Amino acid sequence: MDEKPSHPLTAARESLGLDRVQFAERIQAAARRRGLRSGVTNTRVRKWEVDGVTPDGLSQEYIAEALGVDAPGPASAPWPYWLPGAGGRVRPPGGVVELGPTTTVPALREALQATMDHSRRVVVSAISTTALLALAGAWANAGPQPPAVVEPVAPPVSGDDDLLTSLEQATNLFTSQPTEARQHTAHVLEALLTSVSNLLEEGRHRGEARTRLLSLAAKLAGEVGWHRFDSGRHPEAARYWIGGLHSANALGDSDLGAGILSDLAYQASWRNRPELAADILRRALTRTRHPAAQSLLQLRLARALAVHGDRRATLRALNAAEHLLGAPCADPVPGWCGWLSSADLAVDTGQALLDLGDTRRAHTLIGEGQSLLPTARDKTRGVFLAYQAKSHLELGEPDLAAAAATESFELAQRIGAPRCVKLVRDLVPAFESFPTAQGVPELLARTAS
User: Fold this and answer.
1) What is the pLDDT of residues 339-395, one digit of tens each?
2) What residues make up the domain containing 78?
3) DSSP string computed for 324-391
4) Judgement on whether residues 44 and 138 belong to the same structural domain of the protein
5) Angle value at C-alpha 265, between 220 and 212, nearest 5 degrees
């Protein structure tokens, strides 16, 4: 056997009782009706169905007419996902691509399309709560998935390994830049993700090569998602993270999938939707395996529960996070949560306690965490300083709060972190109650500009 499992075009063609010769004749007839000529033969149809060749735009119009369906337009899913039964037709606003064995490319395409829409000043639809919970539930109920390793159906193309190695090297280079430089690399990462998506869509990479592409897709989608999140472009961020989730699902990496779901939950908490965040995290935790990954998810769960005011559940999650951090495990810590440290545990614990009203203890922990944070993590330092400013305000120490907020604001502007800038600006109403305190007038003037 030299043919792949049934392609959506094969299924659509055979549902009409057509063999490849008859289908090619229909395509030729569609061209003649336009006064044109098509050179499509049964050999070309086979290349579309078996070899993963993508027909050009005009041929796709002929294919749609031959199948008796609407021709794919600008709002359609990419080939072959617009075909009948392929599961890739456009969803209503707020919907998402459902998890499945061939859904990685459509999910990545939706993310890239969202960025394109934004650049054209088209409003990008936010993802609905229902769709997010359904996606998290489907992932949780899917159970362990084996890595998607398929034997090659054809010899590898010369130079493929060099190309994949170059993509990996470029990805590692641009995702390991200092925080201050990352504000300038988002377009490069997006271009790399487009290239990886194109290679996945071709469908000719199998086995280890496909695994490498899926790993790149998950990493790049996650990185671009965080850039969009930091810039306040939340619908786009969610689309990229969902593309990463599909990639992780195809890889069979449950910890990576759980981590991406936790990013979506973090976004929900940030947008004052703590109940949604907690619901997503509970589903994600059902398949999280590594102690470090569990610790991060428990810490984020505690933050969501604290905002919701559930003291007992918050303390339980904080205790679990502390216990799991650094717990022995034979497997290495997943790269996506390798940054988690005692500094993060202390500050996020302090922020949760601050939300619960334990101001003095919270302030102590936030200060301890701030002192433990490595100097390389500037963006996190900016966030921590904003938390520290908030705790000083609640203790009635506006001068110290102004000093921390000013440092956070200046750092955020230098490294290009709009999210940190927003954190400080959100504190302005509280600072306005102390108009003559040391440093406050200057801070108010800075944040107003």
Assistant:
1) 999 999 999 999 999 999 999 999 999 999 989 988 778 888 899 999 999 999 999
2) 1-88
3) HTT---SSPPPGGGTT--HHHHHHHHHHHHHHHT-HHHHHHHHHHHHHHS-TT-HHHHHHHHHHHHHH
4) no
5) 25
